[in-house]
Amino acid sequence: MNVYTDTPKMPSWLKKGLPDSKTAKELSRYLEAGCVETVCMNSRCPNITECYSAGNVSFLILGKICTRNCLFCAIGNGRPEEIDPDEPVAVAKAVSGLGLKYAVITSVTRDDIPDGGAGLFADVVKAVKKASPETTVETLTPDFNGSLKAIDKVIKAGIDVFSHNMETVARLYPQIRPDFDYSRSLDVLRHAASSGSVVIKSGFMVGLGELEEEIGGLLRDIKDTGCAFLTIGQYLRPKNSRLEVKEYIRPGRFRDMKEEALKLGFKKVASGPFVRSSYRAGEFFL
């Protein structure tokens, strides 16, 4: 049974062609040969060719199976795989070998691990920084069940950007993100910001049935944590998901939300139908 019914027809501004990119194909082959996973591929991101062509990669660590079940996500959930102890070296080799100036490291949620996987995050970051000292590293983390020690472990590994996505407005959490907690995610951002040593970033989707006033409230809540960077994108239904799109937001509204966020004090905002949390992240940071 669908959460929403009467799904609107996809508008023309969301029909995106996939360019034939030699650079993207070569990068894909390199990553596959190096036995590393990317969220770009596993989440079926519509921007994968564009980002790969620009040398933007978001590495996926801690396996491909999530212990939680967010209805908007294309990544599978269930019993996760064993942790790969060689993952830090593999990711570091890929970053160095590709000459990446900016690398995003993210993961599935691993509630089966005592620290939620924060230790492996830290090991990957340290390995990347050792192999490629000039690379800017962003970590896009789960909430670690609100563990402040886990958040500190990731930050102290030497990251440059700490990112944790709010994803949607508070009212929709029980339906769309049932294993997460709105206040807890805000606390994650707030604690990370309190370190004073890294840039804080978050993001959310629209088109899930949120109200205008709820978007305003979400923007204020995120800004109040100390978050500086923000991404806003259109929810697009992954294959086999039962969560339908409630509304396709017009490009003009994305521009309005960006202006609203900038007026609140966000330093940088990427807002558009195809924007994702790691979309061309290097260019966003610089």
Give a brief rundown of this model.
The protein is of the alpha/beta class and 286 residues long.
Question: Secondary-structure blueprint of this entry?
Answer:
Blueprint: H1 22-33, E1 37-38, H2 39-42, H3 48-53, E2 57-61, H4 87-98, E3 102-107, H5 118-131, E4 136-140, H6 148-155, E5 161-163, H7 173-176, H8 182-194, E6 199-206, H9 212-224, E7 229-234, H10 251-264, E8 268-271, H11 281-285
Parallel strand pairs: 2-3, 3-4, 4-5, 5-6, 6-7, 7-8
Antiparallel strand pairs: 1-2
Helix pairs in contact: 4-5, 5-6
CATH architecture, by name, is Alpha-Beta Barrel
Content-based structural category: alpha/beta
The mean pLDDT is: 86
Strand content: 5-15%
Classified by CATH, the class is Alpha Beta
List SSEs in N-to-C order: HEHHEHEHEHEHHEHEHEH
Shape: globular
According to CATH, the fold-level topology is TIM Barrel
**Biggest beta-sheet profile:** 8 strands, mixed
Tally of distinct domains: 1
Number of helices: 11
Question: What value does the Rg take, in angstroms?
Answer: 18 Å
Name of the CATH superfamily: Aldolase class I
Number of DSSP E strands: 8
Low-confidence stretches: 1-5
Main attributes of the structure:
TIM Barrel, alpha/beta, disordered N terminus, eight-stranded mixed beta sheet, 286 residues
Commentary on this structure:
It contains 11 helices and 8 strands. It has an 8-stranded mixed beta sheet with strand order 1-2-3-4-5-6-7-8. The chain is α/β, with parallel strands linked by helices and 286 residues long. Helix 4 runs parallel beside helix 5. Helices cover 37% and strands 14% of the residues. It starts with 21 loop residues before the first helix and ends with a helix. Strand 2, helix 4 and strand 3 (102-107) form a beta-alpha-beta unit. The chain has a single domain, classed as Aldolase class I (TIM Barrel).
